């Protein structure tokens, strides 16, 4: 290798080192809940999301109203693009019910959730603020209850 070859090699090393300083986007998966009623809706959402740069795949489960987008993408850009179709879209709000401390709390329970899932609740309600239900069997024989049964 001559002097010019060595210089080219060094400049190549320096330029490639400079390129690696840029933060490389991580491949990630974004799950969305998108309201889709028919094949046309599904096709429109798939086509629109597939056109985003960095998208590798778009998988749609219409029964669950779930869209899974994979690639070198930004979650907020994917959501914005999904909303641009005119469909109601949000980041997938559900988690398996066994990951939630109180799956039947009013904030977590959602009858539209897929089987085995509840809404993701960031701050589950504390016992003080939760609606308190009294056990009817405890008050059935209570002295405090004027309509209570009495055992003779």
From TrEMBL:
CDD domains recorded: HMA (cd00371)
GO MF entry, a single one: metal ion binding
Subcellular location: Membrane
Keyword Lipoprotein assigned: no
Membrane topology: Peripheral membrane protein
Gene3D superfamilies reported for this sequence: 3.30.70.100
One GO term (biological process): plant-type hypersensitive response
Annotated keywords: Metal-binding
Domain HMA, residue spans: 27-90
Protein name per UniProt: Copper chaperone
Lineage: Eukaryota, Viridiplantae, Streptophyta, Embryophyta, Tracheophyta
């Amino acid at each position: 290798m001559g002097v010019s070859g060595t210089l080219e090699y060094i400049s190549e090393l320096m330029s490639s080192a400079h390129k690696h300083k840029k933060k490389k986007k991580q491949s990630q998966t974004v799950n969305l809940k998108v309201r889709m009623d028919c094949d046309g809706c599904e096709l429109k959402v798939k086509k629109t999301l597939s056109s985003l740069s960095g998208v590798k795949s778009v998988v749609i489960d219409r029964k669950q109203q779930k869209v899974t987008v994979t690639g070198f993408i930004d979650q907020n850009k994917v959501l914005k693009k999904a909303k641009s179709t005119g469909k109601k879209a949000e980041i997938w709000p559900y988690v398996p019910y066994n990951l939630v401390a109180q799956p039947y709390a009013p904030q977590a329970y959602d009858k539209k959730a897929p089987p085995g899932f509840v809404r993701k609740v960031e701050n589950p309600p504390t016992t003080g603020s939760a609606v308190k239900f009294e056990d009817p069997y405890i008050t059935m024989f209570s002295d405090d209850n004027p309509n209570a049964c009495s055992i003779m």
